[in-house]
Design a protein that fits this description.
Elements (H helix, E strand, L loop, with lengths): L1 H21 L2 H16 L2 H23 L5 H24 L4 H24 L7 H4 L2 H12 L12 H46 L19 H23 L3 H12 L20 H70 L1
Keywords: Ion channel, Ion transport, Membrane, Transmembrane, Transmembrane helix, Transport
Family: Belongs to the two pore domain potassium channel (TC 1.A.1.8) family.
GO biological process, one term: stabilization of membrane potential
C-alpha cells in the first residue's frame, strides 16, 4: 500500500510539473521564438524578412532625412539672388554703350555662379527639397541600393544620424541579402529545373522508341547554360521595354540600366524617378515596381548562377571520364603495339638462329 501510495503521489507530481511547464508563459514564448526564427530562415521567411527590412529602412530614412533643413538648397537660392543683383548692377553701371565691358563683367559673374552650382551638384544637389527627395518609394529604393550593394548614389543622406543609420543598416542588411540570394537562388533553380525536366520528358516521350528487353540507362538531366542566358535575356528585355516607356529612355539606355543594376555596379547615371519633381503621374508605383524588378532580378541571377555551376560540374565530370577512357585506350594500344613488336622481334631472332 505504501508503495502504491508513493507511486500515485509521484505520478501526480509528474503530471503537475508537466502541466506547469506546459502552461508556463516563458516556455511558450521561447517556443514561439524558436519557431519564428526557424521560419525566418526558410525561403519564404527570408524573402519576407528582406521586404520587411527594406520597408523598415525606408520609414527610418524618410523620418530622419525628410524634415532636416537643406542648407545647400538655401545656398543655391542665395547664389541665384546675388547673381541676379550683380547682373543688374553691372547693366546699370555700364549702360548699353560699353558693350565690351558689360560682357566681360557678366562673364565673370556667370562663371562664379556656374562654379558654385557645379560644386553643389557634385555634392548631391538636384534642385529638389528634402520632402520631394525622400518620399517613401524613393527611400525604399535607397534601402534596396544599400543592402544589395548597388549604390546608385542619386540619393544620399545629408544628416549625421542618416549617415550613422546607413552604416548600421548596411552592416545588418548585407548578410540578410546574402542569405536571400542563396535561398532564393536554390528555390528558383529547383523550380526551373523541374519545369525544364518535365518539358524535356514530354518532348521526348513521343519521339523515343523502345525495343523489347532493352533497358535505357537514365542519364542525369541538367539545365543547359544557354537556357539560363535566355531567361536573363528575356528578363532584361522586359525591363528595357518597361523603363523605356516610363522614363522616355531609348532602348540602349534602358538595357544599360537593367544590366548595371542586376550586375550590382550601379553607376547612378540612370535611375528611375530621378527626374520626377512631384508624386503625380504614378511615380510612386513606378518606383515600387522598380524595387520588385531589381529584387526579383537578383533572385534570377542567383538561379542562373546555381544552374550554370551544376551544368559546368556535370560537363567537367563527363570530360574527366572521356579523358580517362581516351588515356585507357591509348595505353591499351601502346601495350598491344609493344607486345606485337616484341613478338615480331623474337620471331626474327629465332629465324636467324
Amino acid at each position: 500500500m505504501e508503495r502504491q501510495h508513493s507511486s500515485l503521489h509521484g505520478s501526480f507530481r509528474s503530471k503537475d510539473s508537466s502541466s506547469t511547464t506546459g502552461s508556463d508563459p516563458r516556455e511558450k514564448i521561447k517556443d514561439c521564438l524558436r519557431k519564428f526564427i526557424a521560419f525566418m530562415f526558410t525561403q519564404v521567411g527570408v524573402g519576407a524578412l528582406v521586404v520587411c527590412y527594406a520597408i523598415l529602412g525606408a520609414a527610418s530614412f524618410m523620418h530622419i532625412e525628410k524634415d532636416s533643413p537643406d542648407e545647400q538648397l538655401e545656398n543655391v537660392k542665395e547664389w541665384r539672388r546675388s547673381c541676379a543683383e550683380e547682373l543688374w548692377n553691372i547693366t546699370v553701371n555700364n549702360n548699353i554703350f560699353n558693350e565690351t565691358a558689360w560682357e566681360i563683367n557678366i562673364n565673370k559673374v556667370l562663371k562664379v555662379f556656374q562654379s558654385n552650382i557645379t560644386g553643389a551638384v557634385h555634392t548631391g544637389y538636384s534642385g529638389r527639397s528634402a520632402e520631394d527627395i525622400w518620399s517613401f518609394p524613393a527611400a525604399l529604393m535607397y534601402s534596396l541600393s544599400v543592402f544589395t550593394m548597388i549604390g546608385y548614389g542619386n540619393i544620399v543622406p545629408k544628416t549625421v544620424w542618416g549617415k550613422i543609420v546607413t552604416i548600421a543598416y548596411a552592416c545588418f542588411g548585407i548578410p540578410i541579402y546574402i542569405l536571400y540570394f542563396c535561398n532564393m537562388g536554390k528555390v528558383l533553380a529547383q523550380s526551373f529545373k523541374w519545369l525544364y525536366i518535365t518539358a524535356h520528358e514530354c518532348s521526348r516521350r513521343e519521339d523515343t522508341m523502345f525495343e523489347e528487353g532493352e533497358i535505357q540507362m537514365k542519364r542525369k538531366i541538367t539545365v543547359p547554360s544557354t537556357a539560363c542566358l535566355w531567361v536573363i535575356s528575356f528578363y532584361i528585355l522586359t525591363g528595357t521595354i518597361m523603363f523605356g516607356a516610363w522614363e522616355k529612355w531609348n532602348y540602349l539606355d534602358s538595357t544599360y540600366f537593367c544590366v548595371i543594376s542586376l550586375c550590382k555596379i550601379g553607376f547612378g547615371d540612370f535611375v528611375p524617378g530621378a527626374n520626377i519633381t512631384d508624386s503625380a503621374g504614378g511615380s510612386h508605383l513606378k518606383l515600387v515596381i522598380n524595387f520588385i524588378y531589381v529584387l526579383l532580378g537578383m533572385g534570377l541571377v542567383a538561379m542562373c548562377y546555381n544552374l550554370m555551376c551544376e551544368d559546368v560540374r556535370v560537363k567537367v565530370r563527363e570530360l574527366r571520364e572521356d579523358l580517362k577512357n581516351c588515356l585507357d585506350d591509348i595505353t591499351l594500344k601502346i601495350t598491344v603495339c609493344m607486345n606485337d613488336t616484341k613478338y615480331y622481334h623474337q620471331k626474327q631472332t629465332r629465324h636467324v638462329k
